[in-house]
Amino acid sequence: MKKEIFQEYVDKVKDHFDMTSEQLFAKKKDKPIVDARHVLFYLCHKRNITSSYIKHYMSEYGYDIALSSVGHGIKKMDKEVGNDPDYATLIEKLQ
Fold first, then answer.
1. For residue 92, which phi and psi values (nearest 5 degrees)?
2. Where along the chain do its domains lie?
């Protein structure tokens, strides 16, 4: 069940950020790609998908990530949502 939710969020994030799966899961540090991944982590976290599951699902797409990096992305987005109404609106829209 959680995997389906993860996939649903992958599709929504890709559509919103106008990128492919290959771009979303590429080992790149370009800000738009990193922001998209952080939004994905945050959305999953809000649906009670654990960081361990997020890490596992990311690796299924070929993107190996440390648990600490997932946690960092979630914390960063939590701060952004609290400080920037545009991020709050985006999260609301994608949920």
1. -60, -40
2. 2-14+37-94
